[in-house]
Write a structure and sequence with these properties.
The structure holds 3 protein chains of 3 kinds. By secondary structure, chain A is α+β, with helices and mostly antiparallel strands. Chain A has 11 helices and 9 strands. The chains are: A alpha+beta, B mainly alpha, C alpha/beta. Chains in contact: A-B, A-C, B-C. At the B-C interface, strand 1 and helix 1 of B face strand 15, strand 16, helix 13 and helix 14 of C.
Amino acid sequence: MNNILLISLIVLGVLGGILAIILYFVAQKFKVEENPLIDEVEACLAGANCGGCGYAGCRNFAEACVKAASEKQSLAGLNCPSSDMQKVADVLKLTVEAAEPMIAVVRCNGSCENSPAKVHYEGADICAFANTLYAGEGGCSKGCLGLGDCVKKCPFDALHINKETGLPEVDEEKCVGCGACAKACPRGIIEVRPRGKNNRRVYVCCSNTDKGAIVMKSCSVGCIGCQKCFKTCPFEAIEMRGNLAYIDPAKCKSCRKCEEVCPRGTIHAVNFPPRKPKAEQPVGEPVQQPVVEQPVKEKVTIENKENA
Amino acid sequence: MNNYTISGSPHVHGTDSTQKIMGRVILALIPALLVAIYYFGWYALRLTIVSVGACILTEWLIQKFLIKGPLTINDGSAALTGLLLAFNVPANLPIWMVIVGSVVAIGIGKMSFGGLGKNPFNPALVGRVFMLVSFPTAMTTWPQAQPIFRDGFFADAVTGPTPLGLLKESGAQSLDQMQFVDMVLGNRGGAFGEVCTIALLIGALYLIVRKVIDIWTPLVILLTVFVFTGICHLINPTVYIAPWYHLVYGGLILGAFFMATDMVTSPMTIRGKMLFAFGVGVITVVIRLWGAYPEGVSFAILIMNALTPLINRLYKPYVFGVVKPSKKQ
Amino acid sequence: MNPLKTFPKGGVHPEENKLSADQPIQDFPLPKQIIVPLGQCLGAPADPIVQKGDHVLTGQMIGTAKGFVSANVHSPATGTVAKVDVVMDHTGYYKPAVFINVDEEEQWVDGVIQTDELLTEIKLDSNEIINKIKECGIVGMGGATFPTHVKLMIPEGKKAEYIIINAAECEPYLTCDNRLLLEKTKEFLMGVKILMKAVNTDKGVIGIERNKMSAIELLDKTIAENRDLFAGIQVQPLKTKYPQGGEKQIIKAITGREVPSGKLPIETGCVVVNVASTYAIYEAVQKNKPLVERIVTVTGKSVKHPGNYRVRFGTPANLLIDAAGGLPDDTANIINGGPMMGKSVSVTDFPVIKGTSGILLMNVKDAQPRKVGNCIRCGRCAIACPMGLQPFLINKLAKLDMFDETEKNHIMDCIECGSCEFTCPANIPLLDYIRYGKAKTGAIIRARNQK
């Protein structure tokens, strides 16, 4: 009995030893030389593979960072929206200017109430497919289909469909502005915009470029292209894209005048303190221009590069 | 104004549903159940009710409290698992063992993988094999068939060996003790669902006619067993019994028609099904002739279940208009 | 009668429900205003060449084809252009359309022969025929609306051996092709002759499902009576099985040849043309008549008087529904086309276009959404698939966005016939996911090919 035990132990022990030696030599022989910095950079990243940087995954981004650091000594054009670029810069012993924080904005307010359902959809829960079938339950051909392609693609759990409105809602805390949702939306309703100063931003909550008459048929809060905001804006920040107003975040000074004139309540201003009674409308807000300008410009260059 | 439905084509749908398919299989098992009640009386009925009830309850509890998903007990698959599980045990098995078996069958065999359609193994067989290895004595102590008009509905069970058990114990000469006709009619020991070949074949015929199962899987299993055991019999008739006995002496008919044809755990294509069936046949015979257990159908099916994904990869349907790779090169 | 043929793989047999099979074609009067969508074919919508206030004659061109796979649009009525605007058509989207206020008096454009006389002499040669077809804006009127002239232009080095007329009408409910065969038999057969001349072949085969026995007999009889005129035309009865009328399926059934994966039917030497298109080709080539009308089946189990109507394009569908006894109260689903491949529409007043083979009103009972269950891996979808695909697998891969895998599993070969979804006992919307996957995979392949 003892003998058997002993023999088993010895055999196993010797076997283990031999295999360990083989493994060691093989590992030495086939070792892949890789810059250890890549691992270090990758450790700083969120690891969500969201694609917000324009690379396929965090590893690729880390490689790109290390390469850029060794070749150009700068991280220009490289930005991970979901993690702290400062940490990456520290690892690579470089400096980086803080990028404007971004957030996803859902540019549709066609809730069940504002755009009542005229038909009823049965089938696979994929916006991209429903998009090929019909305009939408409310009848707006540019409006949110509410099946949640964006929700499924969000790597940060920052988007959820609100059951009552049937629209996706962005969790401001969790959203990093990576743009995965914007890519997923078949109708391009989601836009990644700068969070704005103090997290306050003004945007047109509609994506419909159709004529006003058609928009009116399907939605009570859609942009009808009346151009009132376009004419009112003191900073020429609003442009008309077809029959849709678009507020350029680079030019907008958050004066909220457009919000006031919009006859359909399409322009949303979020996170602003409640307005004072109408009589004493403040005009002083746009005074703070210079403070806002600097980061905004920088942001634009980043965005352009992302698009390119 | 009406709310018209928008949906992708097709807008019409066949009349078949999962529920109907399960219902048909259950219906096909009813003749065998009636025969079982005839031979084993109260014990068979009690076990069936307990087993079906326990399976449904387990699924309901898991759905309700663990997964918190939509309730699926009304699709009939849990009832079918319960029925098949009951068919695979001795009629005098203690009630609590069947309940344990049911919980394992549904809980581990099915729900742990995500419910109907996602289980790699046939849940009823998982339950059965679990019981077989956990309670070997109880699971292999078989009551003899006692027609109820002779011994009464509540008659005490008299235990005895199954034909295959007898063969394992005392070899081919034990055949003298058995009448082939009795074996076919079900007047023998064994798991109470498997005893009556005739009743099972009636149910199977119904399933084939209703196109719930196709003939290929059971046919290939039976053929493989027949040919394999036939060769053995020709080589040494004193040790190996004639092949036709093998077809009816154990759970082969039940396994071949009702368990190996389980849609979830068998391959998709006809060729795949045939390979699957061939494997089941070979493993069954190997276990029966040379293994430790007298019966090998359950193990054979479970082993082949594990190979199903590979078989599915091996045999894909021929795609229209695609030149076969061999010609291409 | 020739022996029955069919395609070998897959297929399903839905309830036929040919409710309007015995209803003769009725001429549907022109409404006060017609809305003619400019996008009536598979490719790019036509460019409008009329403006508000223009007076147009019936048959006058109002939109010119834009691009290779596109077809001209002609005015289906005489009247004044009210506006060129957008209308919600059967796709559920707003698309450009010409609104025409119809005059009381109808006047055709010059050169159109309006007699019913059968013209048997084909004066044009092959190229002229194809040009005529192109000019008259004829498209595949089975529903896919692929421009017919593109099909007939045989690429260099290929030869068209057969003209196959797709008269299978395998879609349940629809009867418009059947009625056309019965009522315009000789004109239709002349159309086949013209097509044969267009691609220089002497073999024309009419593939027709066996459930249209009267049409088969009538065609056989007519061909036998006019042996010289209709030489080379043959009627081939087919088994009643869906999708018998799929282009690849009907070629396989009739000639036994398989269209190679990813290739066009001409690889097998076959050109497949729809019945209604064939008739339109006769009218265009012999009578100089552009495509401005078609036969539409208005049907449904709850419809009071299912019927077949000869309708000018641009007629709002709700007028047709009214003519068939009004919109039933239990309508749950309005379908443009047949129940297997048609498209559900959001509005009742969508205009009839070249591809509108039927307007089907599904009642609540039939259209009731079914509970979607788990896949039980029964493999019925794979058995039903006429293309030999594995829908259960592709469905799952598409759901998981694994588009390289869907491509390897031949998703691009899917003909979207819906047999898989029809047969699925778990009611999984297989085709929805497959279509999604196909669109995405196709986009990836196109992007790759462009590189």
